[in-house]
């Protein structure tokens, strides 16, 4: 199994930046498709970004151009760099992993989830 732990959340002013980290346990990290999801209060969890083992990336339209997902397989860590943050980016951000079960977009395809880290963007 895989354990995921997010960090890097906190409060930031609109227009600012934040880098989230997700540390994964186990020896299988490099073979996993990694994703970031977020969930605002009272709303459904939504896809943010994903990255394959080889570094291919994809982003939700809501964050495209403002965010960058990356991974360091040697450190078993995936990152989400978020720039030009907006109040609507406020949410709990979750790291997730799947064994290439299916589409990166659907959260039901992911096998492992972290506890989440809160990002609050003030106007």
Describe it.
There is one protein chain. By secondary structure, this protein is an all-beta fold. It is 0% helix and 48% strand. The chain has strands spanning 4-7, 10-13, 18-24, 33-39, 46-51, 57-59, 67-72, 77-82, 91-98, 112-113, 117-122. The strands form two sheets. Strands 2, 4, 5, 6, 9, 10 and 11 form a seven-stranded mixed β-sheet that branches. Strand 4 (33-39) and strand 5 form a beta hairpin. The model has no long low-confidence stretch (mean pLDDT 95).
Q: Measured on Cα atoms, how large is the radius of gyration?
A: 13 Å
Estimate what percentage of residues fall within beta strands.
over 45%
Average pLDDT reading: 95
Number of discrete helical segments: 0
* Helical residues, percent: under 10%
Return residue spans where pLDDT drops below 50 for at least 5 consecutive residues.
Answer: none
Structural class: mainly beta
| Biggest β-sheet description | 7 strands, mixed
Question: How would you describe the shape?
Answer: globular
| Count of extended strands | 11
Short description, anyone?
This protein has strands at 4-7, 10-13, 18-24, 33-39, 46-51, 57-59, 67-72, 77-82, 91-98, 112-113, 117-122.
Topology:
Elements: E1 4-7, E2 10-13, E3 18-24, E4 33-39, E5 46-51, E6 57-59, E7 67-72, E8 77-82, E9 91-98, E10 112-113, E11 117-122
Parallel strand pairs: 2-11
Antiparallel strand pairs: 1-3, 3-8, 4-5, 4-9, 5-6, 7-8, 9-10, 9-11
């Amino acid at each position: 199994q895989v354990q995921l732990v997010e960090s890097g959340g906190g409060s930031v002013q609109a227009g600012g930046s934040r880098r989230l980290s997700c540390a994964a346990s186990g020896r299988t990290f490099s073979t996993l498709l990694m994703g970031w999801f977020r969930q605002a209060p009272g709303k459904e969890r939504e896809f943010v970004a994903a990255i394959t083992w080889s570094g291919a990336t994809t982003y939700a339209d809501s964050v495209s151009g403002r965010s960058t997902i990356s991974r360091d397989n040697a450190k078993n860590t995936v990152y989400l760099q978020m720039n030009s943050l907006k109040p609507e980016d406020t949410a709990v951000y979750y790291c997730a992993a799947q064994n290439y079960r299916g589409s990166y977009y659907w959260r039901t395809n992911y096998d492992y989830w972290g506890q989440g880290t809160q990002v609050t963007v003030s106007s």
